[in-house]
Design goal:
single chain; 630 residues; alpha+beta; 5-stranded mixed beta sheet; 5 strands
C-alpha cells in the first residue's frame, strides 16, 4: 500500500503541484542535493523529482531527467521510480506534446511492467492511465472498457484511491456522453472519498468537473460556485494546468449567461495560464471559445483570427476535436464580412464533418446491436447446457420443464424485440441515407446551375460593346444569384440543426422570410397563428419541405402578381396537425410564363405529397390563395 501511494504521490506531483512561480529555485535546490548524493537509489529519486519540477516550463529537461531514471533501472532495481517515470512520460507526451500514440505507448509499457511484477494496484493505475488516454483521443468506448476494469479491481482490493480514480473517470465519460445526472452521482461518490482522504488537488479537479456537469445541465449559478471553489484550491496550490481549465469553464459559464465581456476576460486568463504548460489541444479549445464569443459581439474579424489560429494548432495534433464547431463559426463569420466564397468553403467542410459524425454514430449503434445479438447467442448456448442437466434431474422434471419454458419464452420475446428494433433502425438509416442523397442532389443541382449562370453572365461582362448601364444590370443579376445560392446553403444548415426542430422554430423561420421577401417590396403582410402545437418536433425532411412550399408560395406572389396585401395564417385543423394559408390581394396579374408557373405548383404539390400533406391553390379575380395542410 505504501509503495503504490508513493508512486501516485509522484504522479500527482508531475501533473498538479509544480509551482509556476518558484519552480526554478526548487530545481536548483534539487540539483545541489543530487551533486552531493553518492547513493544510487537516492539519486534515482532525486532525478525523478527534478524531472517533475521541470514539467510546467521545460519539457525537454523533463524528458532528459526521466530518461536518466530509466537508464538507472538495470543497475538500481528501483521498481517504483521506473513505473512512475513511465507513467509520467505518458502524461507529459499527452499534455505537453499532444503526441497521443507515444503517450499510449508509455502507458502500455507501464502496464506490462506491473504485470511482470504481479502488482495489482499498479496495474489498476496503469489501466486508468490508458482509459484517460483514450478519453483524450475521443474514443469513449475504449476508455470505458479500461475504467470498468479499474472499478472491478478497486472493489476487489477495497482500495480508496483506486475507487476515487474509477468514480472520477466514469463521471467524466458520462458527462461527455450527455448523462449529467449520472456523472454528478459518480463525482459525488469520488468527492466523499477525497474529503475523507484529504486529496486536495484531486478535490479541486472534482469540483471543476462537478461545475461542468451542472453547467451542461444549464444550472449556471450552481456551476459557478463549484468553479470558484476549485479556483481557490488551484490558486493555493499554484497549479497552472488546472487554473487554465477552470478559467476556461468560467468563460463558458458567462458565455451561456450572455455576459460576453466577462467571458472573454476568463478565456484570456485561461490562455495566459496555458502558456506556462504549453498544452496545444487546450489552446485550440480556448481559442474556439474566444471565436464564438467574438462572433456574438458582432466582431467577425476577431472571430476569424481566433478560429483560424485554432485550426492551425489542430493540424499538428492527432485529434478530431473542435473541427465541426470551428468550420461553422468560420463560415458564419466570413458570411458576415461578405467573403461568400470562403464562407461557402467552410460550410461545405462543416457539412462533411457533420455527415461523418452521423455515419460514425450509426456504425456505433449497429455495433451495439451486434454485440447484443452475440450476448443473446451466448445465453442460448448456456440454456442448452442447462437443459441437458435438467433432463438428468428426474425428481425435478416438472419444475425444470416449466422453468425452461418460461426462460425460452423470455429469450424468444427478447430476440424478437431486438429483431424488431434492428429492422426499425435499418429503416431509419435508409431514410437518413435517402434524405442525405436528396439534399446532396438538390445542393449539387442548385449550386451547379447557379455557378453556370454566373459563368455565363461573367462572360457577358467581357464584351466590349456593353455600356456601363448594361454592365450594372449583369452585375446585379450575379449578386442576386449569389445571394440565392447562399440562402440555399443557410436553409440547408438550418434544417440540419438539431436545436431547431420544432414547429415553433419553423414559424420563426417563416416570419423571418416573410419580413425579408415582402419587406424588400414594401408589401404589408398580416401574420396570425391559432392553437398550433409549437413544441411538436419535425424531421429534417418535414422542415425543409414545409419551408420550401412557403418560400415558393411567396415567390409566386412576388413574381406573378402586383400584390397589395398578403395574409399568412397558421392554425390547427379538425383532422390535420397544421394548416398554412397564404392569401395575396392584388390589383392585376403580371405577364407570366405558364410553364414556369405550372412547374412551381407541381413542385409544391410534390413536396407536400412527400410528407403526406396536401396542397390546394385558388385563383380568383383579385386574389390568389395557397392552402397547405399536413
Amino acid at each position: 500500500m505504501k509503495k503504490n501511494n508513493l508512486i501516485n504521490h509522484i504522479i500527482i506531483l508531475t501533473i498538479c503541484s509544480c509551482s509556476f512561480t518558484t519552480s526554478g529555485q526548487g530545481v536548483d535546490s534539487l540539483k545541489m542535493l543530487l551533486a552531493e548524493e553518492s547513493n544510487d537509489s537516492t539519486k534515482v529519486k532525486l532525478l525523478k523529482k527534478i524531472g517533475d519540477a521541470y514539467f510546467e516550463f521545460n519539457f525537454d529537461s523533463t524528458e532528459f531527467y526521466y530518461n536518466k531514471v530509466l537508464a538507472f533501472a538495470p543497475t538500481v532495481p528501483h521498481y517504483d521510480m521506473k513505473l512512475s517515470a513511465l507513467r509520467s512520460f505518458g502524461y507529459n507526451y499527452f499534455i505537453k506534446k499532444n503526441n497521443y500514440p507515444l503517450g499510449l505507448e508509455y502507458f502500455n509499457k507501464a502496464l506490462d511492467l506491473t504485470k511482470t511484477k504481479k502488482d495489482s494496484i499498479g496495474q489498476a493505475y496503469s489501466l486508468a492511465d490508458l482509459g484517460w488516454g483514450y478519453w483524450k483521443k475521443k474514443e469513449p468506448l475504449e476508455a470505458l472498457k479500461y475504467h470498468l476494469q479499474v472499478k472491478s479491481l478497486a472493489e476487489e482490493l477495497q482500495h480508496p484511491k483506486l475507487l476515487f480514480t474509477s468514480f472520477f473517470n466514469l463521471g467524466i465519460i458520462q458527462n461527455d456522453e450527455g448523462d449529467n445526472k449520472k456523472a454528478i452521482e459518480y463525482f459525488n461518490h469520488a468527492l466523499e472519498i477525497a474529503d475523507t482522504a484529504n486529496y486536495v488537488i484531486s478535490k479541486g479537479r472534482l469540483l471543476n468537473n462537478l461545475g461542468k456537469a451542472y453547467q451542461d445541465d444549464k444550472e449556471y449559478d450552481i456551476a459557478l460556485q463549484y468553479f470558484q471553489r476549485a479556483d481557490s484550491i488551484f490558486l493555493e496550490k499554484r497549479s497552472g494546468n488546472w487554473l487554465s481549465l477552470v478559467n476556461y469553464n468560467k468563460g463558458n459559464n458567462f458565455f451561456f449567461r450572455g455576459d460576453f465581456l466577462k467571458s472573454i476576460s476568463y478565456f484570456q486568463k485561461a490562455l495566459e495560464y496555458n502558456k506556462v504548460i504549453g498544452n496545444n489541444e487546450r489552446e485550440a479549445m480556448i481559442l474556439l471559445g474566444l471565436a464564438k464569443t467574438q462572433f456574438e459581439l458582432d466582431d467577425p474579424q476577431q472571430s476569424i483570427t481566433h478560429a483560424e489560429r485554432a485550426l492551425t494548432i489542430l493540424k499538428e495534433i492527432d485529434t478530431k476535436l473542435y473541427y465541426k464547431e470551428l468550420y461553422l463559426i468560420l463560415g458564419e463569420s466570413y458570411d458576415l464580412i461578405g467573403d461568400y466564397y470562403k464562407a461557402s468553403e467552410y460550410f461545405k467542410k462543416y457539412l462533411k464533418v457533420h455527415e461523418e459524425e452521423e455515419e460514425a454514430d450509426n456504425v456505433k449503434k449497429i455495433a451495439t446491436l451486434n454485440h447484443n445479438v452475440e450476448i443473446v447467442k451466448k445465453e442460448n448456448r448456456i440454456l442448452d447446457l442447462q437443459n441437458k442437466d435438467l433432463v438428468r434431474e428426474k425428481t425435478l422434471v416438472k419444475f425444470q420443464f416449466n422453468n425452461q419454458l418460461l426462460r425460452f419464452a423470455t429469450i424468444t420475446i427478447f430476440l424478437c424485440s431486438i429483431l424488431f428494433f434492428f429492422i426499425n433502425k435499418s429503416k431509419e438509416l435508409k431514410r437518413m441515407d435517402d434524405l442525405k442523397n436528396d439534399l446532396s442532389d438538390d445542393l449539387h443541382d442548385n449550386i451547379g446551375s447557379s455557378l453556370n449562370h454566373i459563368k455565363m453572365l461573367s462572360n457577358q461582362l467581357n464584351r466590349k460593346q456593353l455600356n456601363e448601364k448594361e454592365r450594372g444590370k449583369v452585375l446585379l443579376k450575379i449578386k442576386n444569384i449569389s445571394n440565392e445560392m447562399m440562402h440555399s446553403m443557410y436553409d440547408l444548415v438550418w434544417a440540419l440543426k438539431k436545436n431547431q426542430e420544432t414547429v415553433g422554430d419553423l414559424i420563426v423561420k417563416i416570419q423571418d422570410h416573410a419580413d425579408n421577401a415582402l419587406g424588400d417590396f414594401n408589401i404589408p403582410y398580416f401574420f396570425s397563428s391559432d392553437k398550433i402545437d409549437e413544441q411538436k418536433k419535425l424531421s429534417t425532411k418535414e422542415k425543409l419541405n414545409i419551408y420550401a412550399i412557403f418560400k415558393e408560395g411567396i415567390n409566386n406572389i412576388l413574381k406573378h402578381t402586383d400584390a397589395e396585401k398578403v395574409y399568412i395564417t397558421l392554425k390547427k385543423g379538425e383532422k390535420k396537425n397544421f394548416i398554412m394559408q397564404v392569401k395575396s390581394i392584388y390589383k392585376y396579374k403580371k405577364q407570366i410564363n405558364k410553364i414556369s408557373n405550372h412547374n412551381g405548383i407541381v413542385n409544391m404539390k410534390k413536396r407536400a405529397k412527400e410528407i403526406n400533406g396536401e396542397l390546394e391553390t385558388i385563383n380568383e379575380k383579385d386574389n390568389f390563395i395557397l392552402i397547405f395542410s399536413w
